[in-house]
Specification:
This protein folds into 3 domains: 107 residues, Electron Transport, Fmn-binding Protein, Chain A (Pnp Oxidase, Chain A, Roll); 118 residues, Thrombin, subunit H (Beta Barrel), CATH 2.40.10; 129 residues, predicted glycosyltransferase like domains (Thrombin, subunit H). Helix content is 16%, strand content 42%. It contains 3 helices and 24 strands. The protein is globular and about 75 Å long. The N and C termini lie far apart (103 Å).
């Protein structure tokens, strides 16, 4: 009987370690799924291979379940010898943080389908997904992209509503049963793409982690222009990933962090901030400016409201998730600047002091005119602060 690559099964014991040694050299990521697990697959890379002991150590990008028993079965889909393979590994033990050892199988089988490298997207990248099913009455869902490949995607829905009357529905995994078809999937905000990526797909699986639902889609046949645009976007992301890994500092080196001179604003100065997200329905908040620099700001959120009808909503720190994007930021009555300063940015962190909520926002790329105006305003404030310090020095009490 012949096995993979036309070799007798007796010889596969040497080819399996060679396949994982190839993965060690390429450092290619591959999905690892726990048999019977309900969560999303883990992305893994090979750290070391012991061919004699038929043992491999993998590094995952998030922790494996702490109570995973020794001998538990895990499935991987890998690319080796220019082919795609499925293998079943047996979990041995945890070696270190995010490092786990597995027993290599004696054989692998061809997966029979093409595997694509997946690229993760963080919430602060603000890549938005809208999907619509084919049922009557139809349902639509919106949320953020979690990962993307040429063959599919995973997204985190945060809103469901009925098409037509826009009645908001309660999200549930039952809405995404396996094999359900979605003829319209629109992805907006992909780096390098000015227009939305429009595809169709079927649900591969869905899962719930805490309060979040994750839905995996397998794309159908893509239109030639969409397939070309998607491939170009992912190539660019792969280049950025490779460049970042090459330029990343060594573990012992200190990570350089850009610092900006921050200027405190008191409530009596009346500088007011109004921010607005791009969700559906949108949410806004406003309050006094407390801190400003050329790289970001802090404001105290005094009021939250719904965009459109202006209806007040409960103000809570959870409204400002870390990494959330606010494409509209307006600062009124800023001393030294005539008019309204318009910016955009992402939430850096949120703190609560008593009943007050303070939101720190890191600015995105500013238009040259606005960046110049901000620098001049802060420069004038710096001179004013130095003048105040000097006058206080001149009028200090004299003592012998």
């Amino acid at each position: 009987m012949e096995g993979m690559l036309g070799k007798p099964l007796a010889e596969q014991g040497t080819l399996v370690p060679k396949a994982f040694l190839e993965l060690l050299d390429s450092q290619e990521e591959f999905p690892l799924t726990i048999d019977g697990g309900k969560g999303l697959p883990h992305d893994a890379t090979v750290l070391s291979v012991d061919s004699g002991a038929m043992r491999v150590v993998l590094k995952t990008f998030r922790p494996m379940p702490p109570k995973l028993a020794s001998g538990a079965s895990c499935h991987v889909s890998v690319t080796a010898f220019e082919e795609h393979w499925k293998a079943k590994l047996a979990f041995i033990e945890r070696e270190a943080y995010l490092q786990y050892s597995f027993e290599l199988p004696k054989s692998m089988e061809k997966s029979g389908r093409r595997e694509h490298k997946r690229y993760q997207f963080r919430p602060r990248e603000n890549v938005l997904v809208q999907v619509q099913d084919s049922s009557l009455p139809g349902m639509a869902f919106s949320g953020t992209l979690f990962d993307l490949s040429e063959g599919g995607m995973v997204f985190r829905p945060d809103r469901a509503y009925r098409i037509g009357d826009k009645v908001v529905l309660k999200l549930d995994t039952a809405m995404f049963h396996r094999g359900k078809s979605f003829p319209l999937i629109r992805i907006r905000g992909l780096p390098g793409m000015k227009e939305a990526l429009v595809v169709r797909g079927d649900v591969a699986h869905s899962s719930k982690r805490g309060n979040d639902i994750f839905v995996a889609f397998a794309f159908g046949a893509l239109a030639p222009d969409m397939a070309k645009a998607l491939a170009s976007t992912l190539r660019g992301r792969n280049y950025q990933s490779d460049t970042a890994s090459q330029s990343a500092p060594q573990p012992k080196q200190a990570m350089a962090r850009r610092r900006h001179t921050r200027f405190t604003y008191r409530p009596r100065e009346s500088a007011q901030v109004r921010v607005q997200n791009d969700g559906l329905p949108g949410v806004g908040a406003e309050g006094p400016l407390t801190d400003l620099s050329s790289g970001g700001m802090v404001f105290r959120a005094d009021r939250a409201f719904r965009i459109g009808d202006g209806a007040p909503i409960l103000l809570d720190a959870n409204l400002f998730e870390k990494g959330a994007t606010f494409p509209v930021i307006r600062i009124d009555r800023l001393k030294g600047y005539k008019g309204q300063m318009r910016l955009r940015g992402d939430v850096a962190h949120v703190t609560r002091r008593g009943d007050d909520v303070f939101v720190a926002i890191a600015f995105g790329a500013l238009e040259p005119m606005m960046a110049d105006a901000l620098q001049k305003t802060l420069g004038a404030r710096q001179k004013s602060r130095l003048r105040f310090t000097y006058l206080r020095y001149l009028t200090r009490p004299f003592s012998e």
